[in-house]
Amino acid sequence: MAKERVHKSYIAKCQLETAVRIFLNGKDRSSVITLAGAASGILDRLVRNAGKEPFVDYACRVHRVLVGHTPKRRSYSHHIDKKLGIIAHKHLSKEDSETVELDLEQMAFDALVRALADYETVNSQEEPFVRAFYNWAWENTDGQSLTEKFKKVPDKLRPK
Question: Is the pTM of this model over 0.85?
Answer without folding.
Answer: yes
